[in-house]
Specification:
It is an enzyme of class 2 (transferase). With about 350 residues, this protein is α/β, with parallel strands linked by helices. The chain folds into 2 domains: about 270 residues, Spore Coat Polysaccharide Biosynthesis Protein SpsA, Chain A; about 80 residues, no CATH class. The chain contains 11 helices and 17 strands. The strands form 4 sheets. A 5-stranded mixed barrel has the order 6-9-7-8-10. A 4-stranded mixed beta sheet has the order 12-14-16-17, with no helix packed on it. Strands 5-11 form a two-stranded antiparallel sheet.
Amino acid sequence: MTITCVIMAGGKGERFWPKSRTNLPKQFLNISGNKSMIQQSIERLELLIDISQIFIVTNELYAELLKAQIPHLPHDNIIIEPIGRNTAPCIGLASIIIEERFPNSTMVVIPSDHIIQNDEGFINILKTAAQVAGTNCNLVTLGIQPTYPETGYGYIESAGDPQLVNELNVYKVSTFVEKPDYETAEAYLTAGNFYWNSGIFVWRTEVIRAYIKELMPEMHDILETMKHAFADADRNEIIAAEFGKMPDQSIDYGIMEKARDIYVIPCLFGWDDVGSWTALERINELDEHGNVIKGNILNIDTKRCIIESNGKLIATLGIEDLIVVDTEDVTLICTKDKAQEVKLLLKELRMQKREEYL
């Protein structure tokens, strides 16, 4: 069995502003450790497959960043999206390119900007997921065992008793659930058969292509047009001409919520999607007052804060539950409960035509 991997790396990481910017988004930053998240993703996957079997979908802005951060990635393995069109077109495009290079392969799809702390555990689960995906026409997703009632994630509901594959439980998926309110998230946690949707998928290329044909026929036709044109024209020119015609739709809504034979493997491997600044509390050690501190900081009577300095001294006195992030040209100050709403500031900057701060 040949395993290939698609890393989705076109996002802007706007909730990590002002550190994450249009020209240097979150996946290219050192959020945890001394390497960027996409570098960590590549190193992790190379425990399973060769770099020639790893493909990255991104936009033209980040192609040079990719080459600088991952110089050993083959140039042809960088797939350029001319515009953002959500995860279904991204995955569909990658599938026709991989299908040509590695026919009949099993395809792993992962986001570029997630933290995974247990690399070995993650790779072992991927091997099992690939085995399950190789049976019949199964689609497999990794569900994260919830540890608290999170309202910022989608959930996956499992049904029935599990199969045991390589000592891992594998459940049939009952349904995908949108982000819940707090009371519903608490009920999911109590029920025990709901898992956070990691956005990590495993399937055979021909299986996902068949589902695209069945459930997203308009997108399938455009992919077929591109696939046939690749033989006679420059790939990037074809993608530039055709990609924007595809629907702006997620793979969850377009395929996973409607397909049959979907399985979920519950996981615990130190996963975090690093969706906003508050994620730093989950992936870093806290000081004695519950703060996350990075850089040149002087704190007195400061509790449960996230503070990051770009070099100059940040001095705090008597503050609680704040996020303070200083960059070369912007200082963000907000309450932690507004961390998910940082994108509102970017919306306002666009309205004021102050794009230099984006």
